[in-house]
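User: I'm writing a short methods note and want a consistent example. For Peptidase S1 domain-containing protein, I'll paste the sequence; you return only the structure tokens, no commentary, since I'll be parsing the reply automatically.
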Amino acid sequence: MTKRGRTRDEMGGAGEDQDDHADEMTKAGGAVEEEELASFTPKSPISRPYIPDDQLNAPTAYPETHNAFNEANAKYEAKLRRRYHLFTFSDEGNLAPSCLFSHEHLLPIREPAKKAALHAAKSIIRLSSSVGGKPLADCCGLWIKWEEESKTGIVLTTAHLIRTNHPTRNHWEGRDEYNHKANVIVHLLDDTTAQGHYLYHQEHYDLAFFKVRVDEPVQVPSFSSSVHCGQDVFRLGRDDHMNLRITHGRVEYLNPGRYERHHYMYFFHEKNDDLPHQRNDGYLPRRKNDDYLCDDDGGSVIDLDGKVVGLVNKQLKKPFVPSSILVRCLDLWCQFGCIPRLHLGMRFTSIRLLDPIHVEKM
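Assistant:
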């Protein structure tokens, strides 16, 4: 910049002059439609204003230069912001990366996993609940149905969304309390919200169904017929900003504990201490640990084909309800409006998941 405060673009005959020239032609012509103006993109490059080093540290000696520099810099910043708004790729350089971007050990399955995650993500939304104006819970959910005539969708989520009291970790005591009149808000992918209307919940499987008014069709996921131990899976959820969260893991070789439902299967995620730690807000502080703290309760567990193999049911050992159970529950609910279940008073342990030493003795 010279003492007159001209930018490098101005010295070269380009820069803001082209924008000003475009404005003059618009005023003079008057024939350009508003639609064309809205789509008009300045062709001049974005150049940072320049000020010579000998004048940079002497604002009092060169007041005109510094005033011109500040004015040009303000225009530069405004133009930069306008350009960023033209793209869907936001300027969020500190957004926590997913495992499909930063984990080198996933390279052999990265492409099919990325395709599967992006496909399944379209069915995942976020819900929040409150009672008497006080926040109750936040979780994720899945679209499972959309009706063309009524313009309504059905969401499957965890019953934890409306659980008001959890006095003991022993699920078999059945002492949890639920409030089906809780106010439920559904957070949609277009940054809008809708009211969730309670339909039904089942306490044994911790499932809940809500009806939502939604004008556009929603994507309903496919459910896998089976899931097996050791299988590569991905846990999907959304954080408070509706950003997709992806966590790689495997189906753990584990029987449920004595206090947990016997239908649970478990998601095993191995932490990587070489990666940055992520906070709840999705941004990276300077600590190490890759366990992204996203409350993905009610989110889906998918396979490499993008099919749902389970619904996250957040407990101490990160269990999920397998797809074989979910499909049966969905069929029962669609046919009868409820999910009946016999209570036999017995607990079961899978022989298949026991130590081979014990199996051999049996």
